[in-house]
Amino acid sequence: MAHLNQQTLLVFATLIFAPAVFLHLTNKNTSAVRLYMVQSSAIAALLILSSFDRFSPLIAIAIVATVAVKIFIAPYFFYGLIRRHQLTFSVTKYLNTPVSLLVIAALLALTQSQFFDALAVLSTSGEKLLRLAFATILISLFLSINRKGALSQMLGILSLENGIVAFALFAGLEQSPGLQLGITFNILIWVIIATVFASMIFRKFGSLDVTAMKKLKG
Amino acid sequence: MNMTAIPYWLLQILLIPALSPFFIGVTRRLKARFQNRHGASVFQPYRDFWKLFHKDEIISEDASWIFRVAPYLIFAVTLVIGASIPLVSTALSNTLTGDLLVVVYLIALGTFFLALAGIDTGSAFGGFGSSREMMVAALTEGGLVLSLLTLALISKSANLTAISANIGSLSFQSFTPIILAFISFSIALLAETCRYPFDNPSTHLELTMIHEAMILEYSGKRLALMEWASANKYLIFIALGANLFFPRGIADSLDIIPVMLALVLLAGKSLLFCVAIAVIESSIAKLRIFRLPDLLFTSFVISVIAIGLVN
Amino acid sequence: MLDFLSSAGVFDAMLAVFAAGAFGPLLLRHHDAAANVWSNSLAIGGSGIGLIFSGVALLKGTVPAFGADSTLPLLSFSIRIDQLSAFFMLVISLVAIFCSVYALDYVRHYYGKYSIGVLGFFYNVFIVSMILVVSAHNALFFLIAWEVMALASYFLVIYERRESTSIRAGSLYFIMTHAGTAFIIIAFLLMYRTTGSFEFGEIRDGIAAASPLVKNAIFISALIGFGVKAGVIPLHIWLPSAHPAAPSHVSALMSGVMIKTGIYMMVRIYLDILPGAYLWWGLALLIIGAISSLLGVLYALSEHDLKRLLAYHSIENIGIILLGLGSALVFSSYGMTTLAALGLAAALFHTMNHATFKALLFLGAGSVIAATHTRDIEKYGGLIRLMPQTALFFLIGSMAISALPPLNGFFSEWLTFQALFQGVVGFDVITKITFIISIGSLAFTGGLAAACFVKAFGITFLARPRSEHAAQASETNMLPKLAMAGLALLIVGLGLFSGMVLKTLAKVTGSMANLQGVEADVAQFRSVSIQNGFAETSMPALFIGVIVAAVAVTAVVAVLTRKRKTETGPTWDCGSDLTPRMEITATGFSRSLITISRGVLRPSSETEIEYHDANRYFPKIGTVTMGLHDIYRTYIYKPLRDLTTLIAAQFTKVQSGNINVYILYIFLTLIGLLFFMDLQS
C346 touching B, CB under 8 A? Predict the structure, then answer.
């Protein structure tokens, strides 16, 4: 990552961070999926750029796989799900929008604060980037907590995974292609299974609202 | 192996089958005397075998080749065992088949086929005879192996002829384990040779049959072979008891005089054994079958104590 | 040429053949016959290559070692086939060849009922995973192969998935094998913690620095973990239900070879990787072996399902192998390396022998069950006339497992006895007593095993048929007979050439880190003498002696009685009317032995009587059900299960059923950990 200047990286980091925040604000599921596609594109671009100094066929395969799965296959599954069950809107949340925005702000402040000074150990130059990536992680997790719709929760987890990959890239950690391939494979299987499950749940419970699934308790 | 040893080897191989009916006859006559009967001649078993060999045979139509082959196999096994144990001379040592475990397991081979032959005809008697026989055989093995092991550990060799050679030259200090092992061995002897209190060798009641039940369907020459094999086993065990535990007098070379002397001494010791067995058989009753394991475990425990005393 | 045969290329070729044999049937799954032929022929091919490879490696003494690094840390696909691995690989390949030949015909029973493609896939994966288990040189790679082996065998166990017993057996097996794997992982993690590596070679170099506590912990966790797979009592409860549920050729492989992989790892860890065994390890193994062998054979006596009976005998023979291994450990702890090598050689020889005769018995049982369509011994009888060759092979297997001379089972038990005999004189009291108990248990086990197989063979094959099932049985086809004949020849051959096998095993034990070669001399007549002539025997002489004597007796008697006639007639039975019900039954045969050991076996007997009248004077139908209480479930596994359920019930308080709450837990933990980390620094 050393050959890219900080500005470019900051742009990419914002492209990853912003969708995570906007996911909280959207009401339509289709725009949520589109935000995820934006985030994944940023990750893919970062991967391609970082592979320029150390190229190997395996890395190329990993990148192609990431692009294919995250930008094309996963949204395809989600659109299919939305179309089949008419899940256009997902407004159900625990905390309403102003309060959730407050929580997002608090999390952002937390990552910018002294508590995260330890991150400087990993990369002195890209400290801001690391903090942003970590904020992405926390905010995506919060999305999963706040939303009641299963689709939003799935997108929250996927956004979390993007944030982790971004963190690793910014920190310059060892990116073995085997690892990337494994993670991508994992995401693929996860998406397939999750959509199948979502269909099954919808058929049984009549909605993807998790509060309706009281019978799972205990 | 030089040519002069061949007559002695012939003697070794043929001694057991030749003499075993005699000792059976002696035991029967002594028991008869205890029962205040005159008793048949001691050579009667020879006549019985001659009679059986001259009779025709009827074989059950349910029987398979195991029934037909078993008598030959069992008799052959007793011949092999008879050739491997110390009889008249320790110079006739056989390191190929003379190991104590080999002898014990060859006996087990004979028992295996005997039990199978009992089941083969599908009669009501053979089945339970085999069941009882396997039960007694399974429980006897512990005591038998351990008592012979005691001797092997004392004489530092597991070869039976070597044991015989070494025990004879020991001091009285090793007496206690040998005597204990002998007690254990004699219980095993009574069990394996189908004597009281385990089995009644001359019974006609199925309640008391073990060995007799398995050979009930045999006739003619095969019955003769089965009875003869049983007699061989009897003499084998007596010879083992005599020559392993009290081996004084056994020849250590292949000269004619010591061998003849050893032969006479062997006959004498075997006669003493027959007397002892006849006395035991006449004075105790046959035990109920579920009391037998206690006796066999006692034999096992006595051997364990005997081994524990070996230093 | 020979070096090439034991090179990495040949090994990879073998893997490729198995891979083709695995994936081919999946593509051919709509053509049953093609899938069957493809999968089994390629299994034969792969096993053949494995046999040549391991045979050459064993004979030449080469140690092929190769591997590939993976991109993941700590894991490297390294393979090292030293003498011990080569020996086990030889056993696996040998048995697999015969089982696959048998399967070519046997699998036809499943045409149209279950998917042959899936069977072929999992069968090939199973064999190749076993080979990888014994050749892996990296603990993580080993665990991967171990897990694949467990999964493949699980799917083979539940292959007949419409039977509820199969599913239950599979579930129990699945849980037990993973519980065992957990302990194996603990053992490997302890090794990693001390030496910092998962490579066996590096662990061997660095483990000497471990504290006694760590070594004891490794011993215990490896014992439990591999003991579950090997089937030692009391970890054996999966074995009697899982082995019968699988198809017969798979049962033969599982019982003959898969449980030996547990033994392989025990030998590898205790005698090769860990230096300096402690005395109590060997004594513990001896006690466990003694208990396993006795209880295994006692339970086998009470069984009426032919395959369950054979499964319990596997437990018994594992006990005998553990007796050899335990004696090796004890001698090793005293520094008596030649005696330790003797014990190990006895254990390894018995491993190979048991693989051969157990496979033969299972294949025979498979033929019998396929011909009569029932597994209950009480329904058999008279099969020796209808299935003569199967009966002969089953008889050879029964004689071998009862350790009757001159077959191979006798020699390995003889060797085990010799190893145990050496431990009696000149040791302290505890060791002496343990060895004496082991000798006693081995002696009793031999006798009880013979009793059990008289019952199994006699009731199955001899006398008259006891049911319609048995009366209409017919002999199997050529291929199963060929496989069984091959195994029977192998059994006789191993018995005859025991001396040579012992020499090879002496090389195997000599190659291990802490041991030397066995002090065994093979002299004229191929007689084997142990420990400078303490014990000596010659298997060929025994064989020839018995045969010559039998032939001589037959000839003499035939000549003497040539004028006698032999007629056939109905069974005499003392002149009574013989009905089919008067034959001995399996229950009756073994009931006396069960009654004697009722303290251990806890037999149960329930009587139900249906009466004609209300006053209960005139019985109509009476039923007696005789069985055994399962003391392991009652006293060990049920309390464990109840405790686990109790603890788990306490944890349900945390579960609210709402996904968001669970993610909130994760979130709060994450924030909390960050604060904690910050406070630390």
Answer: no
Specify the higher pLDDT residue, C145 or C539. Answer: C145
Residues of C in contact with B72 (CB under 8 A): 550, 553-554, 557
Give the β-pairing of C603-611 and C65-69: unpaired
Residues C476, C372: Cα–Cα separation, whole Å: 11
Give the angle subtended at the CA of C428 by the CAs of C423 and C433, to the nearest 5°: 65
User: What's the rounded Cα separation, in Å, for the pair B145 and C23?
Assistant: 54
Mean pLDDT of A22-27: 86
The distance in angstroms from the start CA to the end CA of chain C is 63
| Geometric angle at alpha carbon B273, from B268 and B278, rounded to 5° | 125
> Alpha-carbon torsion C673, C678, C679, C681, what sign?
positive
CB B210 within 8 A of CB B194: yes
Q: In angstroms, how far is CA C596 from the centroid of its own chain? A: 27
- Residue corresponding to tokens 């450990």: C329
pLDDT at A218: 44
Residue identified by tokens 């084997």 is C528
Q: Give one DSSP letter per residue of C621-664, joined into a string.
A: EEEEEEEE--HHIIIIIHHHHHHHHHHHHHHGGG--S-HHHHHH
pLDDT, tens digit, for every residue of C585-613? 888 888 888 888 888 888 888 888 888 88
Q: Which residue has the higher pLDDT, B254 or B278?
A: B278
Report the complex ipTM: 0.94
From chain A, the residues in CB contact with C675 under 8 A are: 115
CA C505 to each of CA B290, C88, C97, C502, C606: distance values in angstroms, whole numbers, following the listed order: 44, 11, 22, 5, 51
Above pLDDT 70, what percent of chain A?
78
Name the amino acid, one letter, at C31.
Answer: H
Q: What does the alpha-carbon distance between residue A146 and residue C330 come to, in Å, rounded to a whole number?
A: 63
Q: Encoding tokens for residue C95?
A: 């048995």
Please name the amino acid found at residue C56: V
Distance of alpha carbon C244 from its chain centroid, rounded?
Answer: 13
Cβ-based contacts of B157 with chain C (< 8 Å): 533-535
Report the share of chain B in percent with pLDDT over 90.
47
Chain C residue numbers touching B310 (CB-CB < 8 A)? 424-425
Please give the backbone phi and psi of residue B57, each rounded to the nearest 5 degrees, phi first: -125, 145
Chain segment B150-206, per-residue pLDDT in tens: 999 888 888 888 888 888 777 666 788 888 999 999 999 999 998 888 888 887 777
Please indicate whether, in this complex, the C-beta atoms of C545 and B120 are within 8 angstroms of each other. no
How far apart, in Å, are the Cα atoms of C185 and each of C136, C182, C222, C236, C662?
15, 5, 9, 20, 29
| Nearest residue of A to residue C675, measured between CA atoms | A115
Q: Which of B89-98, B202-211, B291-300, C305-314 has the highest mean pLDDT?
A: C305-314
A–C interface: beta-carbon pairs under 8 A: 56
Instruction: Tell the residue number behind the tokens 């006395």, with chain if given.
Output: B279
pLDDT tens column, C439-455? 999 999 999 999 999 99
For chains B and C, having 3+ Cβ pairs within 8 Å is answered yes
Residue type, A65: A
Choice between C312 and C500, residue whose per-residue pLDDT is larger = C312
Closest by Cα among C639, C589, C596, C627 to C294: C596
Give the C-alpha separation, A152 to A144, whole Å: 7
* B33 Cα to chain C: minimum distance (Å): 30
Calpha distance C393→B210 (Å, rounded): 28
Cβ–Cβ below 8 Å for A141 and C670:
yes
pLDDT, position A174: 58
C566-569/B57-60 β-pairing: parallel
Q: Crossing angle of helices B5-34/B44-53, nearest 10°?
A: 110
A147 near A92, Cβ under 8 Å? yes
Encoded tokens for B221: 């020459």
Q: What is the dihedral of CA C400, C404, C406, C408, to 10 degrees?
A: 40
